[in-house]
Amino acid sequence: MISVEPRKVGRPRATGVSGDSRRDLLDAAAELFTTRGYAATSTRAIAQRAGLRQASLYHYFGGKDDVLAELLEATVLPSLQRAEELGALDVPPMVKLWALSEFDIALLCGGAHNLGALYLLPELNSERFARFRAERAALKVAYGELVDGPEVRVDLVFGLVEGVILTRREKAISEVADFAAAGADACVRVAGCAEDDLPEVRAAGLRLCR
Asked: Gene3D superfamilies, per this entry (predicted)?
């Protein structure tokens, strides 16, 4: 387990390190949860890392669970919104699948911290995180609407997307755009896209990403 030394903040400040106290708290929690571990991180440690008083955390959040919930939802809600936007477009489902996969993989890979690694926390089975579980399930349903064939294909596509979480644990992903595009290629292949059709699907998907 990696040990993270707290910032030397002297007397705690009321404004945090960037002037956006709420954002500072979320950033600090993301770092500590993914390095020290969720159970080993206290609200005091989060506040200290953010350059704030501990009381400031409770001004914005009910507790550590609320901080975790917001961080987790930020890994899913943008992709759900993207799926809704793509659903309204008059393009083939395979192109939508490529674009959604590319967006989702880039989201999971693009942040400063590997928040997807927190999906395996046992605490997420509690009622407090029911909304996150429902949002994640809704995202999988959105993938399913774009995949033709047996349900196992949906499982495999969704597993490929979230598999980038494990990749990030092994090594840093420096070229996120290239990695996300390659991941989207893999997803549509699993969904049944013919190799001859892949360049056209990729090109159309990229146009939707711009």
From this structure: Tetracycline Repressor, domain 2
Q: DSSP state, 13? A: B
Residue for token pair 């009321």: 14
- 148, 182 contact by CB (below 8 A): no
Write a three-state SS string for 47-102. Answer: HHHHCECHHHHHHHCCCHHHHHHHHHHCCCHHHHHHHHHHHCCCCCHHHHHHHHHH
Q: Is the per-residue pLDDT at 162 higher than 90?
A: yes
The answer to whether residues 191 and 157 touch, using CB atoms and an 8 Å cutoff, is yes
- State the DSSP H helix or E strand holding residue 205, giving kind and residue range, or none if neither: helix 198-209
For residue 2, give every residue at least 6 positions away whose Cβ sits within 8 Å of its Cβ, in sequence order, or none: 35, 36
Q: pTM for the whole thing?
A: 0.88
Q: Which of 170, 33, 186 is nearest to 104 (CA)?
A: 186
